[in-house]
Write a structure and sequence with these properties.
The structure holds two protein chains of two kinds.
Chain A lengths: L2 E3 L2 E3 L3 E3 L6 H8 L2 H4 L6 E2 L16 E4 L2 E4 L7 H13 L6 E5 L4 H12 L6 E5 L15 H11 L7 E4 L7 H10 L4 E4 L3 E4 L14 E5 L4 H14 L4 E4 L5 H9 L4 E4 L1 H5 L3 H14 L4
Parallel strand pairs in A: 3-14, 4-7, 7-8, 8-9, 9-10, 10-13, 13-14
Antiparallel strand pairs in A: 1-2, 5-6, 6-12, 11-12
Helix pairs in contact in A: 4-5, 5-6, 6-7, 8-10
Chain B lengths: L10 E11 L2 E7 L11 E6 L15 E4 L2 E3 L2 E7 L3 H8 L5 E8 L11 E7 L4 H12 L6 E5 L2 H4 L8 E5 L6 E2 L2 H12 L3 E6 L2 H14 L3 E4 L15 E4 L2 E4 H4 L2 E3 L14
Parallel strand pairs in B: 8-9, 8-12, 9-10, 10-11, 12-13
Antiparallel strand pairs in B: 1-2, 1-7, 2-6, 3-4, 3-7, 5-6, 13-16, 14-15
Helix pairs in contact in B: 4-5
């Protein structure tokens, strides 16, 4: 079930959502069997920022019906830490590497994109636009104009495929997708997590150290399907669909709604090898489906 | 070696035995394909069937449990019903299956500088001390153990360890008071001879940490934190250390007490 995605040959259409699979930590836990049975056709990195980040204070998780809320806060080693400590191992993985980046201004994103543009180990870049632009106060991916200006700014800096990770916390997601396409994005991915909150049952105050977080898991699947479907009506570029994928049927649904690739996220928390299972179930469904 | 790597992915393990020990349930399962865990390592557990649909339409995520005891091809887990996940796990018996991932994390390291082990546990946190005591006893090493429980019903858990000294909050069994009072007495006599291994609720671990820091006694603490994945993917289980946040699942759950400024992990025990 190999697939061409923006010129990258992938063994199958199942990858991971950014921030849901740390191949370096997983290799410590599972050893070389991880590499022999690598669960994704490409690995999408956790978000890399220019400077190192500690992330949000704990608690960072809260279970909800059919899913969880996370408030992690994008902890990472920063650009230089990533290049020095993480990239050498990630380059040895048996699949292409897609690096997800986020900046607090267009210049910061430009610096990150420029740095990775020169790295042959990196097959594509994904822009996390779910954060405020400190210059305008607007969440970049919530506003079509902000998104267009960002993609305009970084598009000339790389020939690598540029994916825009759309936030579902926007008034008009297809309009943001269209803006990204017109500004030169090669693909869009969606959905990111949906903003949510939980209160400590004992105190009635926010449970999460970051106050609010993002909801993921089966709970968001129907929302993801509707947003992928709507974006597929609006753009011609390929779509990476994700949100609550737990089995081959969920993946097939997203592809029928218009996705070229499908990403698994929260389900990997329940089963580290979920990607292997989703890909094989999907292949079987496709083989047995009369179009 | 304090870490054994796990087979990649989730596997189904048939439950063979369910035993009640007062407030606790011990679930034994077959695990013919997994490696033997190191004491202090943990597994992510879920019921293979009907995981979900409990109170508040939970559970959804697997739950982390230190292994209580391991025999050839068999694992034992100690469970207390405190929420929708543990409630479902407590229901399991022969004929049911567990989904498990593991062994995960870093276990206990041997005592330093020729010191003797001294084990201290509280509540359901006694679990990793049982397998650790088994290993000392197999090597002919004395490993005294101090255990604290809320009341008589919980103190039934003490039978899972060998020759424990017990304290209860209500005085119904053993010393009337805290396990850390027993520990303080022990350390008064031989603080320069022992290394402390502890697991229990956050307030107990913090008291152990302070006591050992004051008396300059090396200590290894098995901590708990809310976890979604258990293998470093979610970044949810961080605890603050002297060198910043670390993920308890891949850098713990056993930590050298000297790395911690506090053992009061936010959100633990939830």
């Amino acid at each position: 079930m190999s697939v061409d995605f923006c010129g990258i040959e992938l063994a199958h259409p199942v990858i991971n959502g950014s921030g849901t699979f740390d191949a370096i930590a997983a290799h410590r836990a599972f050893g070389d069997e991880l590499l022999e049975r690598f669960p994704f056709a490409a690995l999408v990195s956790k978000t890399v920022t220019l400077e190192p980040r500690q992330g949000n204070p704990p608690p960072r998780l809260w279970e909800v019906p059919g899913g969880l809320i996370n408030s992690i806060g994008l902890p990472n080693k920063g650009l230089h830490g990533y290049l020095e400590h993480d990239l050498p191992f990630l380059a040895t993985l048996p699949v292409p590497l897609i690096v997800n980046v986020m900046g607090f201004s267009r210049d910061e994103v430009g610096e990150l994109v420029g740095a990775f543009a020169e790295r042959p180990e990196v097959s594509a870049l994904e822009l996390n636009v779910s954060c405020p632009n400190v210059e305008t106060g607007l969440v970049m991916g919530a506003d079509p104009g902000e998104t267009a200006r960002l993609v305009d700014r970084v598009r000339p800096l790389t020939d690598k495929p540029l994916i825009v990770k759309l936030t579902p916390n926007a008034t008009d997601v297809p309009a943001v997708a269209t803006a990204a396409e017109h500004a030169g994005a090669d693909a869009v991915s969606l959905i990111n997590t949906i903003k949510g909150m939980a209160l400590d049952p004992k105190t009635g105050t926010p449970w999460l150290g970051g106050v609010t977080g993002g909801v993921s898991g089966a709970a968001v699947r129907a929302i993801a399907l509707a947003q992928v479907h709507a974006v597929a009506q609006a753009v011609q570029i390929p779509i990476i669909g994700m949100g609550g994928v737990q089995g081959g049927r969920d993946a097939l649904d997203l592809m029928r709604a218009g996705a070229t690739l499908v990403a698994v996220g929260t389900e990997s928390f329940r089963d580290p090898a979920a990607g292997v299972r989703v890909a094989s179930e999907l292949a079987e469904l496709v083989a047995n489906t009369v179009v | 070696m304090t870490r054994t790597t796990a087979p990649f992915g989730r596997r189904a393990a048939p439950v063979t035995v369910r035993e009640e020990h007062g407030a606790y349930v011990v679930i034994r399962c077959e695990d013919r394909t997994g490696p033997a865990p190191r004491p202090g390592q943990f597994y992510m557990l879920a019921a293979a069937e009907r995981w979900g649909g409990g109170e508040g339409e939970r559970p959804f995520l697997p739950r982390a449990f230190s292994v209580l005891r391991a025999a050839v091809g068999e694992l034992h887990f100690l469970i207390e019903d405190v929420g929708p996940g543990t409630r479902r796990l407590c229901e399991l018996g022969p004929g049911d299956r567990l989904n498990l991932v593991g062994p995960l994390g870093n276990g206990f390291a041997p005592p330093r500088d020729g010191r003797a082990p001294l084990l201290a546990g509280g509540g359901v946190g006694i679990a990793p001390l049982a397998i650790w005591q088994d290993e000392f006893m197999a090597g002919g090493i004395e490993s005294p153990v101090l255990l604290g429980f809320r009341d008589e019903r919980h103190a039934h858990g003490a039978a899972l360890l060998t020759r424990p000294t017990v304290a209860t909050d209500d005085g119904s069994v053993g010393h009337h008071g805290l396990v850390t009072e027993l520990l303080e007495d022990e350390l008064d006599d031989r603080s320069d001879e022992v290394e402390v291994y502890a697991c229990g609720p956050p307030a107990m671990l913090e008291a152990v940490r302070e006591l050992c820091a004051e008396q300059d006694v090396p200590a290894q603490l098995a901590l708990e934190s809310g976890m979604a994945c258990g293998f470093g993917a979610c970044f949810g289980c961080v605890v603050p250390t002297t060198d910043g946040y670390i993920r308890l699942c891949v850098d713990g759950p056993v930590l050298d007490a000297a790395r911690l400024e506090t053992a009061l992990v936010a959100g633990a025990g939830h």
